[in-house]
Amino acid sequence: MTSIRLSPRPPYDFTKMVRRLQGVKHELYRMEDYALVRTVRLAKASSPLLVRIDSIGTIEKPELKVDVAGGGKLGEAEKLELERLLGRMLSAEVELNPFYEHMEALGDEWSAICARFRGLHLLLEADLFECMCKTVIGQQLNLAFASELNRRLMGAAAQPLEHKGVIYPVFPSPEEVASLEYEQLQTLQFSRRKAEYVIDWARAIVSGTVDLQALFAMDNEEIMERLTRLRGIGRWSVECFLLFGMGRTDLLPAADIGLRNALKKLYGRSEQPKEEEVRRIGASWTPWSSYASLYLWESLHDSERA
């Protein structure tokens, strides 16, 4: 078994990240003795890996220990690729103190939120393909049913990974999803359009129409312009992709209902602000709009879980 150590930038509160993950009921993560466990894919690996992520440090001196199983022994190149994947997925290189300084200057409401969720980082999807699939599936659906459709897609297109007698779900590759027919997803209660959007997204990657790795060199607007050319992918979908897939720190999904509800609660309003007003309010959050949005979402959901 391969082990990897990561030293995220403090403050880094792994417990808060796990708590948020439990609240949104992510389909791929499992909790095992306070560790996060899930499958991931490397670009050139023939089979998925199972990673177990344990916090062995503190909020101010964070350290993560990652044990890796499956896929055979990793070479140095594969180990480096996995370290980069994990570092991005766990937002290990994001320095939050400038975010707190920026937001606390906006008023007492923000000072309270920053103190309450200090150390909470974005936990990204492990794979850009997976992120957009889930985003498209989740369009105009409640969280529970979207999560169920994600499970059904995994069951239809990917073989799970077995380790020590435990079965772990695996998100399918673009090739696996591209090989499906629309009708196969329709039998799983996907709408016809949603089935088309998910499979066409996979086929765009397999055909080379979309180069996922090339996106990392592009700015947000260029990615927005390229991806919204694809049927079924609009501005909200790309904003979520940039935020939860790529970890861009200055995304403001102003149309999001949860974000609007959180702002209503924060400022004690009787009604949600409209999308245009969210953009006006959020203009002062730049360059930290993604983390401001994350903390607002968590202020809403954390109260529901309490």
From TrEMBL:
Keyword DNA damage carried by entry: yes
Superkingdom field: Bacteria
E.C. numbers: 3.2.2.21
Alphabetical keyword list: DNA damage, DNA repair, Glycosidase, Hydrolase
InterPro entries, A to Z: Alkylbase_DNA_Glycosylase/TA (IPR051912), HhH-GPD_domain (IPR003265)
Reaction(s) this enzyme catalyzes, per UniProt: Hydrolysis of alkylated DNA, releasing 3-methyladenine, 3-methylguanine, 7-methylguanine and 7-methyladenine
Residues annotated as transmembrane: none
Residue span, HhH-GPD domain: 137-306
Transmembrane listed as a keyword: no
MF-aspect GO terms: alkylbase DNA N-glycosylase activity
Top enzyme class: hydrolase
Protein name from the UniProt record: DNA-3-methyladenine glycosylase II
Organism whose genome encodes this protein: Paenibacillus allorhizosphaerae
Lineage: Bacteria, Bacillati, Bacillota, Bacilli, Bacillales
